[in-house]
Every structure is written in structure tokens, then in C-alpha cells.
Design brief:
Elements (H helix, E strand, L loop, with lengths): L2 H15 L3 H9 L5 E2 H8 L3 H13 L3 E6 L2 E6 L3 H32 L4
Antiparallel strand pairs: 1-3, 2-3
């Protein structure tokens, strides 16, 4: 496999890991540093089993790392570069949202314009 193909595979696996809103919420919750699973549970308001499943996917795809201290498991984003990617995706979203709002505004102005 070429380096380019390996990179495409890596990107696809990473995006697959993030292809669920709850997993995106987990990564966003960890943007400022590691948190224990209990805190994530409280922040996200989901069932413990559901959180465990999503954490397992993110760990398996090496998006998150964990460490155990006593009976607490702490999770963190493996590489802060992923937070930058998430921030870029937010900018991308708002760029498209603004474009769509502009088009809708233009359609509304056209609809309200007097006909001759």
C-alpha cells in the first residue's frame, strides 16, 4: 500500500470513529483535557452502557487514550491536532450555514418583490 493510500485509509477510519454525534460530543467534552468517565457521563446525560460502547470505539480507533487511577478511568484525546480538525469542521459548518442563509434571504426578497 502506498503512503497516499495509507493516509486515506487512516482518514477514513478516523472519520468513521467520529461518525456518531455522541462520539463527537465526547471528543468535544475532552477538548480541554482528560476527564473521568463519571464526569463524561454527567456531562453527556447518556446511559453508562451507551457511553462505554462509544468510548470503546474511540479507543479502538486510537482517537482517545485512557489511564486508570484507583477505580476511576480517565479519558483524553490522543492528539490535540484532532481538536484543531474539529474546530475547522465547525468553521466549515458555519461557512455553509451562512451561504445557505444568504440564498434563503435572496429567495425571500425575490418572493416579496412586486411583480410587473
Amino acid at each position: 500500500m502506498s503512503n497516499a493510500q495509507a493516509l486515506r485509509e487512516f482518514k477514513a477510519r478516523t472519520f468513521q470513529a467520529l461518525a456518531h454525534p455522541t462520539r463527537v460530543a465526547i471528543v468535544e467534552a475532552l477538548r480541554d483535557g482528560e476527564l473521568p468517565a463519571g464526569t463524561l457521563l454527567d456531562m453527556l446525560g447518556i446511559e453508562q452502557a451507551n457511553l462505554s460502547q462509544h468510548l470503546a470505539v474511540l479507543k479502538a480507533r486510537e482517537v482517545l487514550v485512557s489511564r486508570k487511577v484507583g477505580n476511576q478511568v480517565y479519558y483524553a484525546v490522543r492528539d490535540p491536532a484532532l481538536i484543531e480538525v474539529m474546530d475547522l469542521l465547525r468553521k466549515y459548518f458555519y461557512s455553509h450555514l451562512n451561504e445557505t442563509l444568504g440564498l434563503l434571504g435572496e429567495m425571500e426578497r425575490t418572493r416579496k418583490a412586486p411583480r410587473r
